[in-house]
Design the sequence.
């Protein structure tokens, strides 16, 4: 077999007995690296340490992967301007948090014969949020619904809102009580 030393140096082609002797005297394990090679390749290494380090790398890779969340916002073609602004605000908040948004327009009754109204509404929404996200999938008619998916820009960092602002508000009320 071809033997590779603990520092990656080539020891050469040695019989199995000699390789086991070298492993025992250096207090390392003899690990078969490439069994299908001719001759097979083995390496002298601390196998427990190797397994531990590979598990650490796998854990770090899992920690760094991003979880994509898809939020959904439902609209109607005859939406009022104030309601539209409220829904647009929700979409902007979702994009700032780093989530994708699936915008669905629901058609009812005679509205189904006017899909261009929904298409225009989705185009208007896409133009209004262009600085926060981009259209990942363009508007598509799906039965009674028209669907568009918007994703945040890659450069923006997700900002989670919620707890810190509430904690600051509680801190302010504590100081007011102490001042009395």
Sequence:
């Amino acid at each position: 077999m071809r033997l590779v030393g603990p520092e990656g140096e080539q020891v050469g082609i040695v019989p199995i007995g000699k390789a086991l002797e070298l492993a025992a005297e250096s207090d390392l394990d003899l690990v078969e690296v490439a069994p299908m090679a001719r001759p097979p390749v083995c390496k002298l290494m601390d196998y427990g340490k190797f397994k531990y380090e590979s598990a650490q790398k796998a854990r770090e890779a899992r920690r760094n992967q991003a979880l994509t969340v898809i939020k959904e916002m439902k609209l109607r073609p005859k939406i009022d301007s104030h309601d539209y602004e409220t829904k647009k605000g929700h979409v902007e908040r979702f994009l700032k948090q780093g989530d994708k948004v699936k915008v669905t327009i629901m058609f009812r009754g005679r509205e189904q014969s006017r899909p261009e109204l929904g298409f225009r509404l989705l185009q208007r929404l896409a133009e209004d949020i262009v600085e926060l996200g981009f259209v990942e999938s363009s508007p598509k008619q799906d039965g009674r619904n028209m669907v568009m998916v918007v994703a945040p820009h890659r450069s923006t960092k997700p900002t989670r809102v919620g707890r810190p602002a509430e904690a600051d508000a509680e801190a302010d009320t504590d100081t007011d009580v102490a001042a009395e």
Notes: Helices lie at 16-25, 47-64, 81-96, 115-128, 163-179. Residues 163-180 have pLDDT under 50 and may be disordered. Residues 57 and 82 are 50 Å apart (CA to CA).
